[in-house]
Amino acid sequence: MNDKCKSQKLLGCLCTLMSVWILQGCASSTKPLAAVNVPANLTEPCPALSPLNGSTGADILPWAVGVVEKYNECARRHSALVKAIQ
């Protein structure tokens, strides 16, 4: 057997091995996630923020308090959703 024939045979074997390794890497060995019953209130979108009307402290303070309340409620629901699906 000449060198060219040997190298072609070796190249064929390497290609076959690489194909097998690639296909094994794509095989899924993880288990599918179990269905989780998530309460409907945890999947609601966060409320839209109201626009800021005015530029005085009397306008900004109540608006900022409302934004913080909406953020805290949304963050609480998000945390509860994360805990529900873990």
How would you characterize the overall build of this protein?
The protein has 86 residues and is mainly alpha-helical. The mean pLDDT is 83. The chain contains 2 helices and no strands.
SSE run = HH
**Strand elements, count:** 0
C-alpha Rg, in Å?
Answer: 30 Å
The profile of the biggest β sheet is: none
Between the first and last Cα atoms, what is the distance in angstroms?
61 Å
Query: Structural class given helices, strands, pairing?
Result: mainly alpha
Number of helices: 2
Helicity range: 55-70%
Mean pLDDT: 83
Uncertain ranges: none
Described by the principal axes of the CA atoms, the overall outline is elongated
Strand residue content: under 5%
Q: Could you outline the blueprint of secondary structure elements for this entry?
A:
Blueprint lengths: L2 H24 L30 H29 L1
Give a brief outline of the structure.
The protein is mainly alpha-helical and 86 residues long. Helix content is 62%, strand content 0%. It has helices spanning 3-26, 57-85.
Keywords:
2 helices; 86 residues; mainly alpha
